[in-house]
Automatic annotation (TrEMBL):
The lineage of its organism: Eukaryota, Metazoa, Spiralia, Lophotrochozoa, Mollusca. One of its GO terms (molecular function) is hydroxymethylglutaryl-CoA synthase activity. InterPro entries: HMG_CoA_synt_C_dom, Thiolase-like. This is Hydroxymethylglutaryl-coenzyme A synthase C-terminal domain-containing protein. Keywords: Transferase. Pfam families: HMG_CoA_synt_C. Residues 28-263 form the Hydroxymethylglutaryl-coenzyme A synthase C-terminal domain. SUPFAM superfamilies: Thiolase-like. It comes from the Eukaryota. GO terms for biological process: acetyl-CoA metabolic process; farnesyl diphosphate biosynthetic process, mevalonate pathway.
C-alpha cells in the first residue's frame, strides 16, 4: 500500500495535526486487507480462518519495540472484527465493547489500543517477540529493521523446529510505502538454509562482544559529532580498533565535501578467502 502522507511533519504542538499518528495504523489495516484477500485466494489462509491462526510468526518494521507490539495488536483487531462469532470467553475476553469499533475511528483511541495490546499479549509473545532480539539490543535500523527481525526469529529456534513455519513480514517506509508478504520455511533443510543459518550464527556472539562506554564518553563523542558535522576539509579522529573486520570507515572529507573511505581487513572464514583492504572514493 502506498500513499502520499506528510510523515516528516514537525508541527508546533500548539496546533492540531494528525500526522504521522494516523498514517501508521492506516497502513497496517490496508496491508492486512490486501494480504488476507490474496492469502485466501492462494490457499495460504482458509476462508474461515483468521490471519493469526494461519501464520506461525509475524515480523514487523521495528523503529522501537513498543510499536511492534502495537502492530501485532492491530492485526489482532482486524482478525477480531472479521470474526463472525468471537470467543469472548477466550481469546477476545473483555473486548465486547469494541465489537462494533470502526477502524478509522480507532486511530487515536488509546483505551482501545491498551485493551487490544493486553488481550493479544500472549499471542504476541509467542509469534512476534522472538523476532525482537536485534531491535531490542541494537535499536532502529530503519530500512533493514524487518530483516533484522527475520534474522532474530531464525535464531530463536533450531532448524528442525522452524520447518514448515509461515512467517508474515510487514515492511514500511515513511512517505509512505508499505508491504505485507510471507515466506515459508520448506521441509528441505538443504545447504541453502544451513548456509543462511551459519551466516547468522555469530550475531549473538557479536552482541556479547560489544564494548561498553561511559555516559561521559558518549557525550564527548556526540559533542565531536556536533562540532564536525558538515566540516570540510576534515580528517576524522578516533580509533578503528573496535570495528568489525570488513567495516568501511571514513578517512577524509576534502574541500569539495568528497569523501574517502578505507576498510578494516577481512579475516579468513570457512570456505572463504582473505580479501585485501583498499581505498574507495
Amino acid at each position: 500500500y502506498t500513499s502520499h502522507h506528510n510523515m516528516w511533519t514537525k508541527p508546533n504542538w500548539k496546533y492540531s495535526t494528525k500526522f504521522p499518528l494516523e498514517s501508521i495504523p492506516l497502513v497496517w489495516d490496508k496491508c492486512y486487507q490486501a494480504y488476507t484477500e490474496k492469502a485466501t485466494q492462494t490457499g495460504i489462509k482458509g476462508k474461515e480462518d483468521n490471519l493469526i491462526n494461519s501464520s506461525d510468526a509475524f515480523v514487523f518494521h521495528s523503529p522501537y519495540c513498543k510499536l511492534v507490539q502495537k502492530s501485532f495488536a492491530r492485526i489482532f483487531l482486524n482478525d477480531f472484527l472479521q470474526e463472525p462469532s468471537p470467543d469472548f470467553s477466550g481469546r477476545y475476553a473483555g473486548l465486547e465493547s469494541l465489537r462494533n469499533l470502526k477502524l478509522e475511528e480507532s486511530y487515536f483511541d488509546r483505551d482501545a489500543e491498551k485493551a487490544l495490546m493486553a488481550a493479544s499479549n500472549s499471542l504476541f509473545t509467542l509469534k512476534t517477540k522472538p523476532s525482537l532480539l536485534l531491535a531490542n539490543q541494537v535499536g532502529n535500523m530503519y530500512t533493514p529493521s524487518v530483516y533484522g527481525g527475520l534474522a532474530s526469529y531464525l535464531l530463536s529456534a533450531s532448524p528442525s523446529e522452524l520447518v514448515g513455519h509461515r512467517i508474515v513480514l510487514f515492511s514500511y517506509g515513511s512517505g509512505l510505502a508499505s508491504a505485507m508478504f510471507s515466506i515459508k520455511i520448506t521441509k528441505d533443510l538443504g545447504p541453502k538454509l544451513n548456509k543462511l543459518l551459519e551466516n547468522l550464527s555469530n550475531i549473538s556472539k557479536n552482541l556479547q562482544n560489544r564494548v561498553k562506554v561511559s555516559p561521559e564518553e558518549f557525550d564527548k563523542t556526540m559533542k565531536l559529532r556536533e562540532e564536525t558535522h558538515n566540516r570540510a576539509p576534515y580528517t576524522p579522529v578516533g580509533s578503528t580498533e573496535g570495528l568489525f573486520p570488513g567495516t568501511w570507515f571514513l578517512t577524509e572529507v576534502d574541500s569539495m565535501h568528497r569523501r574517502k573511505y578505507d576498510r578494516v581487513p577481512l579475516v579468513q572464514i570457512p570456505n572463504g578467502n582473505l580479501q585485501q583492504t583498499g581505498d574507495v572514493k
